Write the structure tokens for this entry.
Amino acid sequence: MLPKVSIIVPCYNEQSTIRLLLEALGEQTYPRAEMEVIVADGLSTDGTRHAIAAFQRDVPDLRVRVVENSKRSIPSALNRAIEASGGEIIVRMDGHSKPYPDYVANCITAHQAGRGDNVGGVWEIHPGAETWIAKSIAVAAAHPLGVGDALYRHAKQAAEVDTVPFGSFRRALIERVGFFDESLLTNEDYEFNARVRKSGGKIWLDPSIRSVYFARSTLLQLVRQYWRYGFWKWRMLRRYPDTLRWRQALPPLFVLSLVALLLLSVFIPFVGILLVAELLLYFSIMILAGFHAALRRQSAYLTVGLPLAIFTMHLTWGSGFLWSMLTSSVQNHG
């Protein structure tokens, strides 16, 4: 007997990608009769609902339901979808994603083999548009200088990890560790997995479980995304300080050093030389990475685009993290 699977999808204004996701779910090798798709929509204002309704008409034998997510946050969307679902195994997807045809089947195989309590796979980052900056952002989002040692961006071997981006888990895991934390507007996956690990559970990454993820298409969208990531990472780390990893500490330390050197240079002119030296070293590394990527991918725009995208990620993630530290400190002493 194959287990029933509920695929849960948080969604808000995903008109351009939601059909791609639903079509990919319709092409899964896992039997459609054993799957349901629950889309938790945050009251989308574009054509997302129309795109979902059109798919429901075109592919009636794949059960797709839409539930309201009035709070419009990702963790609340996940919780509303879980509450509305009935499957033994829950597979979390995203409106910006497109799973490979064997995605669900490989998740089920890993669970039946007892590999982990929360099982996920590897992202393939694709550009969100056909512009040079969108393509640069996609490369940066998978580059070691952009993501450090995040295995779900480049793993080749199965391994136990700290977190997976789109996890799959048995319903019993929710009963054991609780739902997603709705007080965190981002980093809800990492916080959930921290609770799983603290309960004695295992997070398993299997590179045979693959999905395409569509990166942000403009620098402004990237700024908003990474500021939010940094801001809510600090809020999560206050509860689980032992989950801090070196790659997460570097961006705020980098931004803090720039601010400190800039302020000190007003009073100590020599410090200005240190600031210039740090920036020269940083951008030299970024430009070399851009040249290397441009040569390897035969795309000249990466010479400029990759350094620009990675710098945006570092600066906004680090600034969001530091601003979260500052505002939470003020609140605590207020």
